[in-house]
Amino acid sequence: MNKKKNKIYRQPLPNRFVHWGVAISIIMLIITGIGQMPVYGRYLIVQPFGTKWLTSYEITLWVHYFFAATLLFFTTYHIVYHVVTHISHLGRAEQKDFLFSFLE
Amino acid sequence: MSEKISRRTFLKRSTVASATAGILLATKTPGYAQTDKSDESMLIGSLIDLTKCDGCAAYDTPLCVTACRQKNEHRFPQPQKPIKDYWPRKKHEDWSNEKDRTDRLTPYNWTYVEKVQVNWNGETKEVAIPRRCMHCLDAPCQKLCPFGVIEKTKHGAVKIDENFCMGGAKCRTVCPWDIPQRQAGVGLYMKLAPELAGGGVMYKCDMCADLLEEGKSPACETTCPKGAIEFGPYEQIRKKAYERAKEIGGFIYGDVENSGTLTLYVSDVPFDKINEAIETKKQEENDTRFGRPHMKPEVENMLETTHGYMLATLIAPIAGAAAAGITAYKVLSGQKKKEGGDAHEQEEK
């Protein structure tokens, strides 16, 4: 047995997928969202390597929209996945009750 | 409120509330402050006929420029001195010592006439081009102002609110022609944290929005002795521009540029030649400051490329739901096979 097989994950793959997807999307949305303000061009006196793109309103806008799409993807994935698996764990009567609760 | 709210009622109401908010946002219902008030049937366009304009050769300053300055003088910036630098940068933009300049766009001069020599068809021609804001149909400055202080009037005039502008100059950066010009030492930022944030106020032509509101013509049109500037209902102006171009075998600038603007130039000299002449003149004069816009044909609108990304945000939730459905199905069917096995364990195998 190699080391990798001994590793125990606390969370199943779909959860880890959603967790990191949402985390990266939100961080990038914050960074590029700030980039839509006239901030980086003025205050970044020393331009750290690889951050020049942050001073372009055009590029930060594209990246912002990109991560808006990924955040929407991961959040709907999260909701749909858990609703579907949750319903399937219920008994027949409970499933009926759950669905009818929306109609009451 | 004495009514008891059960968990179920609460969930239901919050679902309805967020769905309603979503629909309101998606359908652009004006439930919130809107800065784009343009009405397609009321748009005012302008036709600038370069075959008629001679840059007022008989006058020291072109009459449209003088009229514009007189009309807007009361709105010109009066900065508090000494003007501080834009911390942490060691610079600021100050035009208050060059108030009399009429040879470029400045916070004190919202229109000017660029005069160039253009070689075309074996002859050298003097071309005078009145320049100012083009008033774009899909204006990046108005859509992207971080403070939401650029308005589009019902006539389509793009107007900066000088009382609330912070002077970040994003409008100038996203404008293909770098039209709005900045003056430091004035505006809202002086009342907030002038040493740390803000840069002044941006100034540019507002198509004499107040005169249009009264049904009058903009100052530049009324004073032009040659009838080279004409304002009118956009569709009529556009038709007229194409007719005039056909008549003289000429060219149009402003109809496709930046996805279309309300300003249409007509010339018997191609605009790439005019652009070349402007660029050469600026290079010769070693002029690198803002305020002398180019005339590159078919210049692109930076918002155009983002439309595809907006579509992606509409598809993303559908893709997310589909992917979740497939994963849930796989996990659940694996679970059934194992009978009572844990979904999490299944996932790891």
UniProtKB/TrEMBL annotation, chain A:
Gene3D superfamilies: Transmembrane di-heme cytochromes, Chain C. One of its GO terms (biological process) is respiratory electron transport chain. InterPro entries: Di-haem_cyt_TM. Keywords: Membrane, Transmembrane, Transmembrane helix. GO terms for cellular component: membrane. SUPFAM superfamilies: Transmembrane di-heme cytochromes (SSF81342). The chain crosses the membrane at residues 20-41, 61-84. This is Cytochrome b561 bacterial/Ni-hydrogenase domain-containing protein.
Automatic annotation (TrEMBL), chain B:
The keyword Cell cycle does not apply. SUPFAM superfamilies: 4Fe-4S ferredoxins. One of its GO terms (cellular component) is cell envelope. It is found in: Cell envelope. GO terms for molecular function: 4 iron, 4 sulfur cluster binding; metal ion binding. Coiled coil: none annotated. It comes from the Bacteria. Transmembrane segments: none annotated. InterPro entries: 4Fe4S_Fe-S-bd (IPR017896), FDH_Electron_Transfer_Unit (IPR051555), TAT_signal (IPR006311), TAT_signal_bac_arc (IPR019546). Residues 124-155, 156-185 form the 4Fe-4S ferredoxin-type domain. The keyword Iron applies. Keywords: 4Fe-4S, Iron, Iron-sulfur, Metal-binding, Repeat. It holds the Pfam family Fer4_11. This is Formate dehydrogenase-O subunit beta. It comes from Anoxybacillus thermarum.
